[in-house]
Amino acid sequence: MDFNIAVIPGDGIGPEIVAEAQKVLDTVGKKFGHSFSYTEVDMGGVSIDKHGVPLTDEALATAKASDAVLLGAVGGVVGKDSWYDLPPHLRPEAGLLAIRKGLGLFANLRPAYLYKELKGACPLKESVADAGFDMIIVRELTGGLYFGERKTEEVNGVMTAIDTLKYDENEIRRIAIKAFEIAMKRRKSVISVDKSNVLDSSRLWDKVVTEVAKDYPEVTLTHMLVDNCAMQLVKDPAQFDVVVTENMFGDILSDEASMVTGSIGMLSSASLAEGKFGLYEPSHGAAPDIAGQNKANPIATILSAAMMLRYSFDLDEEAKAVEDAVQKVLEDGIRTIDIMSDGMQMVGCKEMGDCICERI
Ligand code: ATP
Ligand code: MG
């Protein structure tokens, strides 16, 4: 099959890591008989320099017309890059918000996976790290507390601020469906996280997710309170497969989950729209401190490309081939500087990409 991918290299290490992910996609394409074509799109600082804004209408239109988007990273250093002399809505990161909105991305997927070869970096108890974990957090991205009505006012001489956490049943249903669809491709377990002992929005969340579960009889649904989930993530992360939760809870829990793996250069992410469309990017930022030095770890971006194969193109076997090659590279003792340890072989960004391609 043929797929058209919009590629946004962005700033900092973005161009280097995206190049390696494209190399991996081409290798998979050759092996399995698919062709991937790429259209390059400017976003972030690079777009400010060329076009004066972090995302042009044309760039957004090109991304929209593609089958999926592969993004490196955007951003620079506050106080060093002149981009940050601009008002906030014209800075590199504003491009990200604009593209998320423009593409209708409402489901943010953040996997947290502990490779046994990298267990040493895991901050959890040895017995917990030994058990390993492989989970994915599905965070609602367009509703909830971050987008509800808000105001700050003076009431009887006292400053008062209000934020509202609002969801309608349709918003909950569409994110729940995503979570169950993802669970069908994994270990068939969904844990829905909320605060239904206190919040009305959580009680509606519970009810709708339970209704959606009826369409997925093979998947086990469990409800968990958010405070308990925060605790369980460090106590026994092996119990989690797919977690689905509202925007703010997901923001907090996905950072917690990613940190328990210990290695920022390894974590992929995806943001999905209605249907199969999605944007795929590493969880880390543009890392300007190591940009242009062939030092970046491209694995997070390569694993994001694997997510694209699985979730946007339904190419499960091909996605697995990429993930297996990453696993094999680690087993073979090959490391970039961020995951380096004694006795391992250190390679650069480009060489890491080559090693993964060889193993595919
Ligand atoms: P954000 O852009 O999300 O705000 P940040 O600026 O806080 O992120 P990053 O850009 O992710 O942080 O970088 C944090 C640190 O991690 C830096 O020292 C950077 O060099 C390192 N780092 C990030 N990504 C990678 C990578 N792929 N390979 C190696 N090191 C990385
Ligand atoms: Mg940054």
TrEMBL record:
Its EC number is 1.1.1.85. Residues 4-356 form the Isopropylmalate dehydrogenase-like domain. Its cofactor is Mg(2+); Mn(2+). Pathway: Amino-acid biosynthesis; L-leucine biosynthesis; L-leucine from 3-methyl-2-oxobutanoate: step 3/4. Substrate binds at R100, R110, R139, D227. Mg(2+) binds at D227, D251, D255. Keywords: Amino-acid biosynthesis, Branched-chain amino acid biosynthesis, Cytoplasm, Leucine biosynthesis, Magnesium, Manganese, Metal-binding, NAD, Oxidoreductase. Coiled coil: none annotated. Gene3D superfamilies: Isopropylmalate Dehydrogenase. It comes from the Bacteria. Homodimer. NCBIfam families: leuB (TIGR00169). HAMAP family: LeuB_type1. Catalyzes the oxidation of 3-carboxy-2-hydroxy-4-methylpentanoate (3-isopropylmalate) to 3-carboxy-4-methyl-2-oxopentanoate. The product decarboxylates to 4-methyl-2 oxopentanoate. Belongs to the isocitrate and isopropylmalate dehydrogenases family. LeuB type 1 subfamily. This is 3-isopropylmalate dehydrogenase.
